[in-house]
Amino acid sequence: MAWLVLIFAGLFEVIWAFAMKKSQGFSLLIPSVVTVIFMLLSFALLSFSMKSLPLGIAYTVWTGIGAVGSLIVGMVILQEPANALHMIAAIMIMSGLVLMRIASQ
After folding, report:
1. Euclidean distance between CA atoms 86 and 39, whole angstroms
2. Which structural domain range is residue 78 located in?
């Protein structure tokens, strides 16, 4: 259960990062509100997952999901530039997350 909650916490991190980008420095109301709501949800779910997962694993997985998810959203939705090195880095991060999961069993 803690792992599923942690995955949602990471996905919510991607949502708030995207909304923050769209808020134009918190100058637009709706994206700003979405940012704050999903930030709070993400932190709450991360905190819940830490009840049973070690800090180092939970935080690393949370930030990894946020980093790779934000990279993908940036490339796909915002049309931000991407190259082979970006993709290799994302694959390495995801590989690290899988290894964290395996190592925690």
Report:
1. 25
2. 2-103
